[in-house]
Amino acid sequence: MENIDEKFMREALGEAAAGFMSGEVPIGAVAVHDGEIVARGHNERRTRKDITAHAEMMCLRDLSPSLEKLDLTGYTIYSTLEPCAMCAGAMIHYRVNRVVFGAKDKKLGAAGSAYDFLHDAGIAVVKGVLDKDCREILYKFFKKELGHESKMWEDIELE
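Above: the chain sequence. Below: its structure as C-alpha cells.
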C-alpha cells in the first residue's frame, strides 16, 4: 500500500513529466496543506527565460495568490529533486514545516547533500521518496540533451 508521501510524490512526478514534455529539466513540485494539494509547479527556466523558475519556486508562485498571510506553517513541499539554496531559502523565509524530496542533488542540494540549510532552519526533511522514479526521468532528460547516459547535467549531479 502506498503511503501519503509516495502519493504526493507521484503528483510531483506528474509535474516533472509535464516539464519534460515541454523541453524543461523534469523536476516537479507540489504543496500540500491539510492533506490536499494546494499548488503545483515544474521547471520553467527555458520557457520563461528566467533562471529563478525552478519547480519549487513555480509551486510557491502558484500558491501565493491563495494565501491570506505569507506564512506556510503547516505546509509540506514535495519535490522530485532536492531543493537548491534559492528554493530552500524561500521555504525557510516563509516557514514551510516539512520538505519531502526524491533524488539527491550532490552538487547543489540544500537539504543535506551539498548544504544542509533546511535542517539548520528546523524544517523537517524526508529524503529519497520514490528516489528511483525521480532519478529515472532526469536520466532520460540528460540522455536526450547530451546524447549519452550521464548522472550530471549543468547544475545537477545525481548519485
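Residues 4-21 form the longest helix (18 residues).
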